[in-house]
């Protein structure tokens, strides 16, 4: 087992953003005991961009749920920004999700029949202390603009393309200025070209200093990350830096140039 | 401050969720609307009935005891209360003299008679009474004056007409000072009574259709009889009613020389007891009507719970999303509780208006005045709010207890 500790681009904070020590997550379904995550120890520093890969059933989604404070480990330690969250109450976990974590899902998970702007405002409704309405609106507007959706703010999700919906979801994840962005197969429902755009957004956020952890089963998507962790049967079997990192921005520029050429020809 | 602002925010979210499903919200509220409306309307009808009966009992007079002669039997036929020849003027005078707590006594004889005046004739009841009768019965004159104690002493031929009798005989003309012939004897009319309406007193007859004359005159010239049908007794205070009733019974048994163990040859009618009985009956009616309304309110509440449970299931994914972005379980619970409460409060408000409307409709269609009491409105509205909390609690708790991971996966 190769459990390396990468400190590639530590953003100077004293504690790592994520620190897992001998973490287990076991499900008991009637008489069968499923050890979805087994003795995982993992450290992720601030500013990292980590892909967690693995086949379905490898435990990567379970691990993601624990990292996202949606689920609690059965045993072991999980320190988020230096704080052990393994034994927090449900409402404390909710506050932690609200303050420190942004989620991006494969199926976008936007509220239907609710405008893009209001979807982005959603996490701010639950912030403690309460963010005043004017500031909620201003921050949501600003964040939507930053993901390139200034012209689509009043659209409901059903009137947006998949890529646009995922941008709204990313804006919703970013609006609280979290310390950690968790993305669960963020390009799983998108075509390859839109996938490049979405990965470009995530890379840009990472370049700006945000820690990003992404679950994917596609190697070419994982290739945009700085570090790749591979899981199998609930254990980490490989953990290494990504030597040949793809740049979404460069690829997009090349793609646009090629198109330009084709149109001129 | 912040808590209040947050509560407002959650209320706004709840309201928006309800508006998104206008049809369903409206139908769910309808259960509460019908429930509250029926509680308000039923209680109004019940209270109206109570007020109406209380008025009629009060119209008998204040703190009134009526002593009737016993019933006479001839050949197995019971001629009814007041028909036996047992009560005398002496009995009435003895009661006035000897029983403490008695304010006034009016001996009474009655006889059906033909009255002729103004060229018309009218079949009516002639009642012989004392000058204190109107005070005892809490009855006012519409015009003229009551005959006096002197008229009673001298058996004067004077009469006071009931409002209906006056109308039948004189129409729009003023009867005061005119003459009315009763069995060929002319009487001078001194006054006309105010209308009391066909009440529960007066032996089933219309109280306004009668001619009142001094009892002395009536006994001498009309009935030709020594015996009274009854006498009315006014008691000083309501608290003394039972005491006075017992003393009158003892006095009359003694005067009539009734052996212990034999039945009374008279009946005492206690206005307070009638009032109490009427109050009990109308109370039961009001309770019954209120319960019928409450049952529909309960059914409405169950409707809210049903819809909220459906809503929580339908919106599992929405709940999951809200939780994922940091909504605490308590806040999710509050949102769904507020949705249920908004449904019931809205229904309660409309229901109160509808209930008042139904009460007005009953008033317009029936000859009867329902009384919408503020307390019934407060009660119905308060209960509907409580129903929102009670029946909204379980679905809201169910929403709050959802596992965010499961909820996000829900299709």
Model description:
By secondary structure, chain A is an alpha/beta fold. Chain A has a single domain, classed as Rossmann fold (3-Layer(aba) Sandwich). Chain A contains 8 helices and 10 strands. Chain A has helices spanning 60-67, 90-100, 116-125, 133-146, 162-174, 192-207, 219-222, 248-264, and strands at 18-29, 32-44, 49-53, 75-80, 83-84, 101-104, 180-184, 211-216, 227-232, 235-241. In chain A, strands 6-7-8-3-9-10 form a 6-stranded mixed beta sheet, sandwiched between helices. Chain A is globular and about 60 Å long. The N and C termini of chain A lie far apart (54 Å). Chain B has 411 residues and is α+β, with helices and mostly antiparallel strands. Chain B folds into 2 domains: 7-56 and 277-409, no CATH class; 64-236, no CATH class. Chain B has helices at residues 2-20, 22-58, 89-98, 133-137, 149-153, 163-170, 215-223, 241-255, 271-314, 316-324, 329-365, 374-400, 404-409, and strands at 64-69, 73-74, 77-78, 87-88, 102-117, 120-129, 141-144, 158-161, 179-182, 185-193, 210-214, 227-228, 230-235, 266-270. In chain B, the strands form 3 sheets. Chain B has a 6-stranded mixed beta barrel. In chain B, helix 3 packs across helix 8 (241-255) and helix 11 packs antiparallel against helix 12. The mean pLDDT of chain B is 88. The two termini of chain B are 38 Å apart. Chain B has 13 helices and 14 strands. At the A-B interface, helix 2 and helix 3 of A face helix 1, helix 10, helix 11 and helix 13 of B.
